[in-house]
Amino acid sequence: WEWDGNAWTERSPATSPTQRFGHAMAYDAARGRVVLFGGYGFFSGGLLADTWEWDGNEWVEATPATSPPGRFGAAMAYDSARGRIVLFGGVGDGAELGDTWEWDGSDWIERTPASSPPAREYGALAYDRTRQRAVLFGGFDSVSYLGDTWEWDGNEWALRVTATHPPARTWHMMTFDETRERAVLFGGYDGDIPYNDVWEWDGTAWLEKPSGASPSPRVVAAM
User: Fold this and answer.
1) 110: which strand partners?
2) Residue 211: its pLDDT value, please?
3) What is the pLDDT of residues 78-92, one digit of tens each?
4) Beta strands 96-103 and 84-91, pairing class
5) Neighbours of 36 (CB within 10 A)
6) Rounded CA separation 190/184 (Å)
């Protein structure tokens, strides 16, 4: 489906990715493609490791020489400064993953920085265009809900320790507000309750926005 600002339109391409959940998607602005990776297919072989691109008319399955292992619950965002899609973590063959991959439009490249965030599923990743950093928050490591903040600059992951931050959670959503130059986080789940709080990351600190009119609590939504 496509939203033009006024209405939803269902598209009917000749070829489409198979049914799945827990996949990752991001828009490659330089190449004008929506990129989809992986997920879990109940009717299509379990863990998926396929890469697809939507050009506005057709879905085309990419055939890279190298791909991340199959997974669902990964976090993905587009690094506009470097022209690459960044992917982190997810759930692979029975365990959470903590690997970092980048898609350059032709191939997936595994990055091996000196330090990385702990393995996790369903963290949220948003690209801060102002500071040229991909910001990762939270997720679940099969034992604990996480409340840590990490930034990827294209070469290294750096843990950002702040006095205040959103409570630990998974299944939340996050995107970057370019006009106000802040990453915006909403919702999620901490093992007890679903959230509908709103937090913003300005590159230095997390700020909770005052409560008011807000969507109802929810998990695994998209923003």
Assistant:
1) 101
2) 76
3) 999 999 999 999 999
4) antiparallel
5) 22
6) 18
Handedness of CA 105, 66, 18, 73 (dihedral sign): negative
Strand partners for 122? none
H or E segment at 197? Answer: strand 194-201
3-state secondary structure of 14: coil
Q: Which residue has the tokens 């909770």?
A: 208
* Of residues 62, 44, 66, the one with CA closest to residue 52: 62
Strand boundaries in 93-169, DSSP class E: 96-103, 108-111, 124-128, 133-140, 145-152, 157-160
CB within 8 Å of 74: residues ≥ 6 apart:
24, 37, 38, 68, 87, 88, 89, 90, 97, 121
Give whole-number Cα distances, 60 to 19, 53, 148, in Å.
15, 5, 36
